[in-house]
């Protein structure tokens, strides 16, 4: 829970607040957009909740903040709100909540399926959530779009005896994964589950399409609330190749989906034709961006920070590649 002594000045007065440990991962704004907003490099409470619905959403945001940066002086209803998760998105697809700092706050999803339930990206291994998933039939498969979103996948795999699915280029993050994929083209992993290899953010990044309706896009495609449109991930946060990321998005033009469910960023539901047009527009804009490998101090700093996180996460080989890229860009700006 957040520390009142670290409360940010940008908060409006009232029960709920955000403190200076906030990493601005956007989850609170996704869950309770009426009550949280941007302030400098943080999220803050822009309006105190009014009524039962807004209060419940604000409490959900407290529980989903990966860094425990949201607090409230009135904890009534917090324990009850824990029981909301996973939250139904549509039919058998759910938002898990309990976002993990190990995935930089990535959103995780649960699919209840007759052939075995799926977890997409790993949330915190949180006791209440684990118990709830047990009551819903457990977990048979854990789909990991890339190394950054593995989090507590090993704990979930061991507990549920589930198979972790990851691409071979990301294996350093989960060396004991049960299903290691090598494919480079779109293919059907199982009936109703289509894997889309999508190098860009990382070399082995993958997306998952379920029932030609739900796209789990990992860290590649999201919905921009401010611009009300689909966007491809910023070049600054693309570790492997922004050009390949755009080409990976072009693969999706031959597919249909109406739900976009990213690991990071806003989820959205659109008509399939609108989704396809917005995807094409996002691709066109991406090709017009300046050279994503242009040397800049912010780019070097971001890469070095990521390399350090990889070393701390016992992924030294990938850390070497990222550090080498940072070192090369630094020589261009000196």
Q: What does this 3D model show about the protein?
A:
The chain is an alpha+beta fold and 334 residues long. The protein has three domains: 4-82, Alpha-Beta Plaits (2-Layer Sandwich), CATH 3.30.70.20; 87-287, Ribonuclease Z/Hydroxyacylglutathione hydrolase-like (Metallo-beta-lactamase, Chain A), CATH 3.60.15; 297-333, no CATH class. It has nine helices and 19 strands. It has helices at residues 27-31, 51-64, 78-82, 127-135, 153-160, 242-251, 272-287, 297-312, 316-333; strands at 16-18, 36-39, 42-45, 70-72, 87-90, 93-95, 109-111, 118-120, 141-143, 163-167, 179-181, 187-190, 193-197, 206-210, 214-218, 221-224, 229-232, 259-262, 268-269. The strands form five sheets. The chain has a seven-stranded mixed beta sheet with strand order 5-6-7-8-9-10-11, covered by helices on one side. It is globular, with a radius of gyration of 20 Å. It starts with 15 loop residues before the first strand and ends with a helix.
Defining key terms:
Metallo-beta-lactamase, Chain A, Alpha-Beta Plaits, 3 domains, 6-stranded mixed β-sheet, 21% strand, 7-stranded mixed β-sheet, 30% helix, 334 residues, alpha+beta, 9 helices
């Amino acid at each position: 829970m957040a520390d009142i002594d670290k409360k940010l000045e940008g908060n409006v007065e009232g029960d709920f607040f955000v403190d200076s440990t906030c990493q601005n991962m956007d989850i609170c704004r996704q869950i309770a957009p009426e009550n949280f907003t941007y302030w400098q490099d943080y999220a803050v409470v822009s309006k105190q909740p009014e009524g039962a619905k807004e209060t419940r959403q604000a409490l959900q945001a407290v529980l989903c903040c990966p860094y425990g940066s949201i607090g409230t002086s009135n904890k009534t209803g917090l324990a009850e709100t824990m029981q909301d998760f996973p939250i139904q998105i549509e039919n058998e697809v759910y938002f898990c909540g309990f976002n993990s700092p190990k995935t930089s706050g990535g959103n995780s999803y649960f699919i209840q399926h007759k052939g075995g339930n799926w977890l997409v990206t790993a949330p915190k291994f949180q006791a209440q959530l684990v118990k709830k998933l047990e009551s819903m039939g457990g977990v048979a498969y854990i789909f990991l779009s890339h190394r950054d979103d593995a989090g507590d996948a090993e704990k979930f795999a061991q507990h549920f005896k589930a198979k972790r699915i990851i691409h071979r280029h990301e294996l350093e993050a989960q060396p004991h994964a049960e299903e290691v994929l090598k494919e480079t083209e779109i293919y059907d992993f199982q009936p109703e589950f289509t894997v889309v290899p999508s190098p860009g953010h990382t070399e082995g990044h993958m997306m998952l399409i379920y029932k030609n309706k739900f796209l789990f896009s990992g860290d590649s495609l999201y919905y921009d609330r401010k611009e009300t449109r689909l966007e491809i991930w910023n070049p600054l946060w693309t570790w492997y190749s922004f050009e390949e990321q755009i080409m990976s998005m072009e693969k999706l033009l031959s597919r249909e989906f109406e739900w976009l469910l990213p690991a990071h960023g806003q989820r959205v539901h659109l008509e399939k034709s609108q989704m396809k047009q917005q995807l094409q527009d996002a691709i066109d804009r991406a090709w017009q961006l300046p050279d994503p490998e242009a040397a800049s101090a912010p780019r070097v700093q971001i890469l070095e920070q990521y390399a350090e996180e990889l070393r701390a996460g016992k992924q030294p080989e990938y850390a070497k590649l990222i550090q080498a890229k940072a070192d090369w860009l630094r020589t261009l700006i000196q």
